[in-house]
Amino acid sequence: MTDKHRIAIVGAGLSGAVIGRELALAGHQVEIFDTRSHVAGNCYTERDAETGVMVHIYGPHIFHTDDGEVWDYVNRFQRFMPYTHRVKTTSGGQVYSMPVNLHTINQFFGKTMRPDEARTFVETLADRSISEPATFEEQALSFVGEALFKAFFDGYTQKQWGCPSSALPASILKRLPLRFNYDDNYFFHKYQGMPETGYTEMVARILDCDGVTVHLDTRFERAMAEGFDHVFYSGPLDGYYDYEFGRLGYRTLDFERFSHDGDYQGCAVMNYGDLAEPQTRITEHKHFSPWEKHQGSVLYRETSRACGPDDIPYYPIRLVEEQALLEQYVARARNEAAVTFVGRLGTYRYLDMDVTIREALDTARLYLATKADGSAMRAFLHA
Ligand code: FAD
Ligand code: UDP
Predict the structure, then answer these.
(1) Is the N end or the C end of the chain the one with fewer CB atoms within 10 Å?
(2) Average pLDDT for residues 351-371, to the nearest whole number?
(3) Pairing of strands 296-306, 281-284
(4) Model pTM greater than 0.90?
């Protein structure tokens, strides 16, 4: 490296922490700002005062990845305990296994089919008139047919996204597998686990590095960029431009906390497929730490709604109107020579933690490769 840069990083979540550490290790001076009073962004965890249970304050977070480098990276800062995410769903007065697998199919149709029989059976249910599914609804109908779609996807999706599943892109459903065996692991990645003492401690350790200073309870305003050679911004893209072209649509979540003596639901996450049930899911946090023992239990009843100006943005909606607005912001952002937009809010995408870390590592490396010899690094936003 030729000289020491003053770097501002907006957001002390995974994006900000990883970029900050990597640039500080390379000798730059890094200042990280977060409006919140804590580090770790949305994967923040803390112990519940009443029960002692480790709680995922902004919703359930399970670490899963195929990326060996990212897995090694997080394991340097936390011991990851064995954890396999298994989700149940309540629909029409029964409890089923998710994602839809042979158990779900046999139970739902009252059958005892073997894998090949179930595959053939589901093929007869699937709507074969849809050759290129464009919407969530078309994807589901061509995938599993109407009965399974209504029971497990339609109600949940309407509650989660606040619109009919015919208005949503097929890509949302493509995240979920359909299995013709009894594998009920929610994920299909090579590595999966839970940080032994929580994500907050993991992020705090990433940030514990010479050359990194963290300013909590501090909003970064655009004017503050002037004092820095480069800014990495993991806040909302539209917020950086004071919502000049309008607000990008988000869903926000409400978590209603309640406690219970003992085991309330017997699993970490119970989804609710029926529209008549207001919640999308209930999370029982102690099941995320099966190696700990707690008599008391803390639960979050989760509901979703449109995100207002004072709410926390959770899920980017990315419908047609948002796409047009997004293009305006992206065009503006690409012209910034000294600001790089990163992370789930800065690039307005749903990003899992492992992808967030992968992109943060790549971003830091690109910066070091281009800035070290004095060449300019223009802002880049992932497609
Ligand atoms: P964030 O964690 O959002 O951090 C951004 C930070 O920037 C925030 O702390 C914010 O306060 C701060 N900030 C914003 N604007 C400013 C400003 N102007 N000045 C100062 N600070 C500012 N991923 C998984 O891999 N597994 C899961 O099971 C999983 N579950 C999820 C469940 C939910 C409900 C949600 C919403 C996400 C889930 N994710 C999961 C995704 C995960 O939360 C993200 O990958 C991760 O949080 C992205 O990190 P980030 O640093 O980009 O953003
Ligand atoms: N989904 C559903 N029923 C379920 C679980 C998920 O219809 O029981 C749909 C829903 O639209 C959701 C999408 O599948 O947004 C992706 O599910 P995932 O569990 O990946 O959601 P996330 O982790 O984003 O909450």
Answers:
(1) C
(2) 94
(3) antiparallel
(4) yes
